[in-house]
Amino acid sequence: MPPLFNALIRTHHITSRKKVAHLKKAAERLSCSVLLRSGGSPGIMYCEGSETSVQEFVSVVQKLRYKDFQLAARPATKWRDTCTATTISHRSIGLCEVPTVKEFASEMELQSILLWWRQAMGYIS
Question: Would the pTM count as exceeding 0.85?
Answer without folding.
Answer: yes
